[in-house]
Here is the input.
Amino acid sequence: MTKKVLVAGFTGAMGQKAVNLVNSLDNFELVAGMSPTATNDPQKYNLPAGAKIYQSLAEIPDLAADIWIDFTTPKAVYDNVKFALEHHISP
Here is the structure.
């Protein structure tokens, strides 16, 4: 079964490493990224063409992914993880 992955902070250096790792793994699909500064151009960030780009937590629907990988800022991580758990996404 393929696990759907969302990477928060995907525009940064570590976020891009996470994107590349997920893209290289079998049974994992990068379906979304979240960054307040990102443009809506998945290929610019090495995301698959069909990946969704969200600029805020409010845009992300329930069950948008199975797994949440967070490379945002220390200030944002708590709220991001809380949001993920409340929306049935495993951080």
Remarks:
- The chain has a mean pLDDT of 96.
- The chain is about 25% helix and 20% strand.
- The radius of gyration is 12 Å.
